[in-house]
């Protein structure tokens, strides 16, 4: 490859020939596809929607559609909004430990009200993000990400065993469900470690497809929802309603703060890995604003919180293609898929045990990402104490929610989420404890 060609690939404004740009764009979609739709399935079930129901299908549609729209905000931009870099947006796992208890107790309308308002808060963080980065060093962000992963692991096991609706029955944990989950898990691992190129990048998606086909052969897939789903449907405003809950808004805004810092890291990772330079303040501010605007706009129509996807940052570094136009092509594919309810119906018809095999891998990778962040920390007495208290109290409250039974309902929800108390303890102790403890 010529020197000129290499320099072009590092230019975000360069458009490769379409015969290369289109498959590269689709590769970005494959890398994030399952991670993007999984939270919609989890929140739908937590809200009481049945597997394959029209409500679940609609939420899956919206997370695809508005992941695409939020990605366009990043790659194409809108005034000061957007980094104009190859950043892929998608539904964030980080919010799940907060959203699951909120939707169960406060309801779906209160959840969406808090997502919309926290998105506005997230947007305005973009104007000051450069000045607040010091509040979340690797110690704090690593603890937060590690807690998110540890909080989600029980969900993966529940799904692999057949799902919450089957708990307490003989069918829960049967070999039929575990067999499907393990099939997905083994196919994913084999392709990830022994596959090359697209096979490795899309290993989770291919593992799900194989598990889906095995489930079909076992007669475990109901096709009626797919047959009844339309070929095209437009988003409907306030589909899940809007209700104001100040405590819910506070919790979601705190997670937006954490998500904003994660986006700063992703922007820096893309510019370093793809172009060998530091991200500019304008790019960081624009990326954070796009996070917030994409979240608020998506929630208005029924999507979930949006953030930059770290796996796609790694893909830019791996391919060496820095073109934002490649990611724009991927975004257009996401939007097209999101406007076709049959796509959502096909996804939601998948047995929950099949999904369980993939989320065990994905949630485990969240834990690994947190440990990786913490590897840069100097483990003196101070930092070990912060980690110990944050994890012990955060995960302890989640494991024994009855210990907080005398607290008001909403406060109890927030403190038993795991992530919120862990994040608050880590942030506060990091601010007040001296650098060296005796």
Q: How many strands? A: 2
Beta-strand content bin: under 5%
Number of helical runs?
A: 20
Helix content: 55-70%
Radius of gyration over all CA atoms, rounded: 21 Å
Task: Name the strands of the widest sheet in spatial order.
Answer: 1-2
Low-confidence parts lasting 5 or more residues at pLDDT below 50? none
What does this structure look like?
- It is a single chain.
- The chain contains 20 helices and two strands.
- The protein has about 450 residues and is mostly helical.
- It has a two-stranded antiparallel sheet.
- Helix 2 packs across helix 15.
- The longest helix has 30 residues, at about 245-275.
- The relative contact order is 0.21.
- The model has no long low-confidence stretch (mean pLDDT about 80).
Keywords:
single chain; 438 residues; mainly alpha; two-stranded antiparallel ribbon; 20 helices; 1% strand
Walk me through the topology.
Blueprint: H1 3-9, H2 18-46, H3 54-75, E1 89-91, H4 96-105, H5 108-125, H6 129-132, H7 138-160, H8 175-194, H9 198-201, H10 203-217, H11 224-228, H12 246-275, H13 281-301, E2 306-308, H14 310-319, H15 324-338, H16 341-348, H17 352-374, H18 381-399, H19 409-415, H20 419-432
Antiparallel strand pairs: 1-2
Helix pairs in contact: 2-3, 2-4, 2-15, 3-13, 3-15, 3-16, 4-5, 4-19, 5-12, 5-13, 7-17, 7-18, 7-20, 8-10, 8-17, 10-17, 12-13, 12-14, 18-20
